[in-house]
Every structure is written in structure tokens, then in C-alpha cells.
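Record 1 of the preview.
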Amino acid sequence: MAESVYRVTEVIGTSSESWEAAARNAVETAAKTVRDLRVAEVVKTDLTIENGAIKSYRVRLGLSFKYEGND
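->
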């Protein structure tokens, strides 16, 4: 098996609907500019509250992607 190297970077997605939608937004947005995404790990979830109601859901993800080789 060939050896591989991966990088992990954190992104934060937001949504007014749910944590799942916030995570989806983060992954879909990152996938537009980062190739070969492999794993998304939920690092933290939180939400913002305004006037006693949930305003937005936020998810911090650790996204990993593979470094490209020369072969």
C-alpha cells in the first residue's frame, strides 16, 4: 500500500435550519475549492440565540484532504 499524507483544516458552516444543514453547507462550499476531501469530523456545535429563539446553527468541522503526489 502506498503511503499517503493528509491535511486537516477547520471550517465553520452555518444554517438557520439545523446542524446537519450547517455541516452540509460547510462541506459543499469547501468542496468547490479543495480537491479530494476525505473525512469531516464534527469538532464543535453551537447556536446563536436572539430574543429567546434560535437564530442560527453553527458546526465546526475538521476536514481532511489528501496531498497530491507526483506519480
